[in-house]
Amino acid sequence: MVFATGIVASCAAPVSQTPRVASTATAAPAPPGPVVFDVNRWRVVERESGPVNYYRVVTEDGRSFVRSEYRPPYETTVLGYELDAQTRETARGLSWKWRALTLPKGGDECASGRGDSAAVVYVSWRRGLRYYTIKYVWSAVGRKGSVCDQKRNPFVAQDTVILETGETNVWKSERIDLHAEFLRHFADGDDTNVPSFVGVGIMSDGDQTGSASSADFADFQVSTSVAPRK
């Protein structure tokens, strides 16, 4: 799926963040703490989704997380999370945990007609009318570390990155540098060319392979810098 429209327009109210205050007027500002996602504030991105919401919040061993349970012949549905304007401007890193439960049969995001994923995390930026998205996936059989299914047009730039593959029922932790990832995929190393972060989406699908697909998503956090990027 090409994540071509904005996450922000279709999601919940902004996540609040309590600012930290320097101890004296002359002290350097303290680094802000991470923005922790509220598991109950994920929302269906309507323009990217079919009529069935196959996601739910599950609590297990004291941890609450989002569980996806795609079943054919559902249309694909995407959840998005809206961040407040200050967080989007100062976002620097993103971390999360996930685990695949059911792998779509033969799902390989780098193979035509088999691009289904047990789990997807979309990370998006925007400049003008153009959205830039990296689609991080937990693949069934794709080669870990592969970058493929690259799309470029006046409104969309999107790359798919296979972060995990093959395993099930194992929690994995991921951490990315948002600035570095944008530069690596879209800016040819031009450090002045990074637009504001937009937000995050999650998904599981099995519509191309016609098979079940499920996963868990937990502990999303955005780390921020003291001031917006210039």
Report on the structure:
7% of the residues lie in helices and 41% in strands. The chain has 230 residues and is mainly β. The strands form two sheets. A seven-stranded mixed beta sheet has the order 2-5-12-7-8-10-9. Residues 12-28 have low confidence and may be disordered.
Q: What's a concise summary of this model?
A:
This protein has helices spanning 85-90, 178-187, and strands at 35-36, 43-44, 55-60, 63-70, 79-82, 91-102, 119-127, 130-139, 147-152, 156-165, 172-177, 197-203, 213-224. Helices cover 7% and strands 41% of the residues.
Strand content: 35-45%
Could you name the ranges where pLDDT drops below 50 across 5 or more consecutive residues? 12-28
Class inferred from helices and paired strands:
mainly beta
Through-space gap between termini: 32 Å
Q: How many E strands? A: 13
Question: Helix-strand pattern, N to C?
Answer: EEEEEHEEEEEEHEE
Helical stretch tally: 2
